[in-house]
Specification:
The chain has a domain of 62 residues: High potential iron-sulphur protein (High-Potential Iron-Sulfur Protein, Chain A, Irregular), CATH 4.10.490. Helix content is 29%, strand content 6%. The chain has a two-stranded antiparallel sheet with strand order 1-2. Bound molecules: iron/sulfur cluster (SF4).
């Protein structure tokens, strides 16, 4: 009896974790035109960064290799504390980029 109850509790926690994971996956992507994003020179595709405007940008820099990126290695997108409640693509970039150690 108690095993069945434990299983039911675990099932609920599991479903909750799945729900929160899918809720996060549904978070909107950061828009380049968003004032906060534009202020940081955010580009959805790092390949389109204006190198004249951002001379510290170097090829190979993107959110996926940034210390602030909250996605896991291999994730297409993930969170960034600079854009709460939104996601950035692993291929994006902004001027706050800090290479992951
Ligand atoms: Fe991407 Fe890093 Fe800028 Fe966040 S701080 S948008 S992870 S480059």
């Amino acid at each position: 009896m108690s095993n069945r109850r434990e299983f039911a509790v675990q099932l609920c926690f599991g479903a909750g974790a799945l729900l929160s994971a899918s809720a996060f996956a549904a978070a909107p992507m950061v828009d380049e035109k968003d004032p906060a994003a534009a202020g940081l020179g955010f580009k959805a595709d790092a390949a389109t960064v204006d190198k004249a405007k951002f001379p510290k940008f170097a090829a190979g820099q993107n959110c996926g290799s940034c210390a602030l990126y909250q996605g896991k290695a291999g994730d297409a997108a993930g969170g960034c504390p600079l854009f709460a409640g939104k996601q950035v693509s692993a291929k994006s970039w902004c001027s706050a980029y800090a290479k992951k150690a």
